[in-house]
Amino acid sequence: MGIPMSPARRAYLGADSVFYAENAAGHVHIASPQSRLAPGYTLKCADTVPDVERFWKRMDAQEREAAEKMNEALFRQRERRLADMRANLNRRLLSLDCSNTERDFIKQCLAILDRKEDILQRNSVYGVAFMQEHEAPLAPTPAKKVDVPQ
């Protein structure tokens, strides 16, 4: 048994109701009574405060999941691109007609790729920084002394 809700919290919202469309898989998006619905979607209405809060929680979870999928796809894309660049540079480095100047240049490029991969790993879903619940707080900046004319 939960905390009893006040009657105002269960109140019918009227014009402030939220209309949304939902399909059988549970995917929701905001709609209006006049909206043309895609096949498989039904129009629903959240007309009490708890219903509206439940709807927004579902929307938030859905958006987070979509963002996670997009981030993972971008991470994989960047990872493949850096691996391709590294393979091409290593192939050229091992070729017989590669001059010493070109070898030095390629070695510097490989060092840059190492730094980029390190940054990519740190700033990714798979990096340690993302595993923290919250970012580290910013260090306080020292107060600047300001002369106020009197």
Distance between the termini: 64 Å
What sort of overall outline do the alpha carbons produce when their principal axes are compared? elongated
Strand content: 5-15%
Q: Which value, in Å, is the CA radius of gyration?
A: 27 Å
Helix and strand string, N-terminal first? EEEHHH
Poorly predicted regions are: 1-9, 127-131
DSSP helix count?
Answer: 3
Largest sheet: 3 strands, antiparallel
Average pLDDT metric: 79
Tell me how many strands there are.
Answer: 3
Broad structural category: mainly alpha
* Order of strands, widest sheet: 2-1-3
Fraction of residues in H or I helices: 40-55%
Could you characterize the architecture of this molecule?
With 150 residues, this protein is mostly helical. Helices cover 48% and strands 9% of the residues. The chain has three helices and three strands; from the N terminus they run E-E-E-H-H-H. It has a three-stranded antiparallel beta sheet, covered by helices on one side. A hairpin with a 5-residue loop joins strand 1 (18-22) and strand 2. Helix 1 runs antiparallel to helix 2. The chain starts with 17 loop residues before the first strand and ends in a 19-residue tail after the last helix.
